[in-house]
Specification:
Layout: H1 7-13, H2 16-29, H3 33-47, H4 53-89, E1 95-104, E2 108-117, E3 123-133, H5 135-152, E4 157-162, H6 165-171, H7 180-192, E5 198-203, H8 210-217
Parallel strand pairs: 1-4, 4-5
Antiparallel strand pairs: 1-2, 2-3
């Protein structure tokens, strides 16, 4: 018998069916629970062409890791497929937008920026400054700048991306901030939305917002 494992470790190695069978075996043969489980796992190892429970544990752990990796790949593929379907549903005249804002120090002087990409691929960059604020002030101001510039371009369908979860959740009424200044930013941004037929504001990780982020990091002349 393999006594290198505690009972809890054996339980984690065993499948659900093996755990049930071990309880039945313990009752039938008047064995301790650990003895019954070891007996079943040793049989499982032998049937798999393995020498002992240790090798069985390694094999099953590797299978768990492989299954987890496969699930992640499948989930990523599903998300990409959904994103591709969403994009195909957008009108042909849809523009893409990215915004960002930074405060150096935080709080401190703010630099805000946005990029608008026309359906023909042409990019329009816009940069502005604020004398004082924190990162939320800068990010929300970046969104407002983007919406203002979009209106000036006469855009009616716009898909916006930003990397501030706080600002985007607040704008989308997912998680509203109780701070007065955030409420004021929200109201200002919402007032700008009336010009659009379709407007979607979505969060993206920072590495997918690099162009707008780079504009906020450029040194002022």
């Amino acid at each position: 018998m393999d006594f290198n494992f505690t009972y809890q470790q054996l339980v984690s190695i065993a499948t659900r069916k093996e755990r049930v069978l071990s309880r039945q075996l313990a009752k039938q043969e008047k064995l301790q629970a650990v003895e019954a489980l070891i007996k079943l796992l040793e049989a499982a190892a032998h049937n798999s062409g393995l020498q002992n429970i240790s090798e069985l544990a390694q094999q099953r752990e590797a299978m768990k890791v492989a299954d987890a990796a496969q699930r992640l790949v499948k989930k990523a593929a599903q998300q990409k497929s959904k994103k591709d379907r969403d994009l195909t549903l957008l009108p042909a005249n849809t523009w893409l937008g990215w915004f960002d804002g930074s405060a150096v120090p935080n709080p401190g002087k703010c630099r805000i920026a946005c990029i608008l990409k026309a359906p023909d691929g042409q990019n329009f960059e816009h940069i502005a400054h604020m004398e004082y604020g924190d990162s939320c002030d800068a990010e929300y101001s970046g969104l407002i700048l983007l919406l203002q510039q979009a209106r000036q371009h006469g855009i009616v369908n716009l898909l916006v991306h930003g990397d501030s979860q706080v600002v985007i959740d607040d704008f989308n009424h997912i998680k509203l901030s109780s701070l007065l200044r955030m409420q004021q930013y929200r109201q200002q941004a919402q007032e700008l939305t009336s010009a659009f037929e379709q407007l979607r504001v979505s969060w993206v990780p920072r590495h997918k917002n690099q162009l707008a982020d780079a504009l906020t990091q450029m040194r002022s002349d």
